[in-house]
Each structure stands twice: as structure tokens, then as C-alpha cells.
Predict the structure.
Amino acid sequence: MKKNRVVVKGRMAFAHLNNPSSVDKKYGMTLIVSKDDDQSINRMNEAIEYVKENSKEKWGGYIPNNLKIPLHDGDVEKPEKAQFRNSFYLNAKCSDPPQIVDKNVEPIENRSELYSGCFINVSLVFYGYNVSGNRGIGIWLGNIQKIKDGPRMSKDHIDARDEFEVIM
């Protein structure tokens, strides 16, 4: 596997996997990774460092001081949101729908099985960019493997059985 492609685990949020986003016409999601998951964090940091070293030509022969890095600290950038506490997060996108599989690496046909809050393994491809003077590292979304269910990340979501009674 290339050094800029990694597989990490985390929780999915803000998923656009069934249809592309209306804003940029891409499929995508936010991945939330616990700060306790040293293995995933190390893999991402190693990929970022690899891309930094291998994108210098794209950035004029050096690593810019104001380089945009895709890994964000939830405690710093989203302290008011409980699901981002003690976590890092990143956004990943792709042009084509990602392959989505279950624990047995069998395709998940019903994409509604993936939702904000479920736990996943995801492949990410880090790359350097230089667009209109904006220099940074972006992330392409690869494949997704659902690991297990988790509580939905919707403050307004209530189970229908808690709201309604059986009608006879």
C-alpha cells in the first residue's frame, strides 16, 4: 500500500454516501477518531508527513508555513459538540460512490445502514494541493467497512416507538 493511503477506524458523521452533496457534487463524510486510538492517529500523521515531503515541488520547492492540514482537534475547534470531544476529525470526499462493506467484507446494499454515529474502518488517500494560492493536504475517501452500530449523532432523533402507541 502506498504511504499516502491508510486505513483507520472511527465514527462517521455528516455522511453523504447515498447521493453527492448538493454543494460540491461529491460523496463524503466526516471521520471522528478518538485521541486514545494511537494506531489510527499515527497512520494519519505518517501519511501527512509523507505528503508534505513529496509535495514540495507542487508548493514551490518548500513546505509552506501556512499549509492547511486536514486533521483537526475537536477539543479546540468544536468544544461545544460532545461527539468531537477527546477526538480528532477530518473530512474526506470522492467523486464516485465509495464501496461499502460489512464486517465480513460483503457489500452493504442498503446504504441506510451507515449513519452518523456508526463505527467504521475507512481507507483514506492523502494528497497535496495548490489551488489559486491555497496550499494544503486534502483527503480522498476510499472504501468503507462498517464495524458496528453506535448511537446516532442527531440530537433531534427519537425512536418512533418512544413517540407513538400501537393503533388497533
